[in-house]
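Moderator note: this is an archived Q&A kept for reference. The question asked for a predicted structure of one protein chain; the sequence and the answer are reproduced below.
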Amino acid sequence: MKNARTITVLVGGMSAERRVSQASGEGVVAALRSEGYDVRVIDPTADLAALVGDLQHNRPDVVFNALHGRFGEDGTIQGVLDWLNIPYTHSGIRASAVAMDKEAARNAFISAGLPVAQGRRIDIAELRERDPLEGAYVVKPVNEGSSVGVEIVRPGSNRRLEIAQNWQFGAHALVESFIPGRELTVGVLDDRALTVTDITPSVGAVGGFYDYEAKYSAGGSTHSLPARVHPEIFAQALDLARATHRTLGCRGATRTDFRYDDTTCGDGPGRLVILEINTQPGLTPTSLLPEQAQFCGISYGALCRWMIENASCRT
């Protein structure tokens, strides 16, 4: 929203990604204040009436949504802000809800002809009885982010039953074939794909897995940008990131994550598969979107300002 001066930043929240949101929010608040905005901070609790009352009493020009995970990026807070007619950053209700629901996003990508791994939703009880897919596969919650709850099951391991017995993410899970190779990601600012980052985990990296600790611990991973990959794959990653953004009707900033199987391609391009799209990319000191923006000449403060200037009520 052009000419916005008063900003309320939503941080923390009630999801499993609360700590990540707090780290993102800390950076955002400092950046916006350095850019000259009048900034207030709200850490939403289960008391929705208190949140609505605060926003009505101290009505901001824009809400900067720095929440991650459930209630923050699944369409819930977006609906509240639309109801109050307060412009906010990032995507709206529909895009946020579909992106957060990995099964729904996967189906949308398949319908659009975009590449995804073989997979399906299962009842978690099925995991107690048998392997739902042949070969190595990934088990992930349907509605979590930041790799929360994601597990890899390899042929011959005995982890399947352990995962099922300790599952804390509802009655269902999404399972997908494990794609060997490398982890790539591309940030998008509306219709602009920034660059491709190659991510190498250095902690918690069982079989090259970019897990929660690798994402958010200092030194947890190495980011190489621009990624040194086959030129066709580099161009394809940029195109696919824009395509996922458009397919779900996203607005503002997103980040699309990929697996790149270059293990058997020789000098050829290999295979690129979409993992997920993030409608609330992290803005922590180790986060990938600010790093890509900086590479493209956009400072952290300028990135936050761009998000404010592009805030609106969504549909």
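Archived answer notes: Confidence is low (pLDDT under 50) at residues 204-208.
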